[in-house]
Specification:
Layout (H helix, E strand, L loop, with lengths): L18 H15 L7 H9 L15 H16 L1 H11 L10 H16 L5 H15 L4 H24 L1
Amino acid sequence: MTSQPLPKPNSNPNSKPNARRRDRRHAVNLVFQIPFLDITPDEMLEAYFLHEIFMHEDLEMPSHPSEKHYVRDTFFGVCNNLDEIDKIISAVTRAWEFNRLILTDLAILRVAIYEIIYNESIPNRVAANEAVEISRLYSGGDSPRFVNGLLGEVIKKYENLHNNTDK
């Protein structure tokens, strides 16, 4: 099994992010692996939690069942809705070809869009802000601004659509 590592985070490895951000980073790590591994999502998740797939040494594994539950649900949610999520990304990246997106940014966007569209327990702005913070850790450069702009458009379109269907 050959996995591809995410770039090293641009942060102090001794600082501990809050548990939810850490769990989002785990979900991003897993989603990042999708194009590289020819195994099922179940096998990927099992291997990941057994440390068989690349892990950052500064990223603690979730220990509480609810933390693993979030990582599992988010990863499977992205996998199960990947085509729809990718259509949303394509729609808001008008000037960019989808296959030109940086894979790290793509994984971050997939997790955030899953949270915005499918996970009602997470406020949209929180999902977007967390994605921007994770892009600062993994991507740097213009990526945080790029991620923020795309997610702002997704939230605006989603909220407009959602408000119009509630009337």
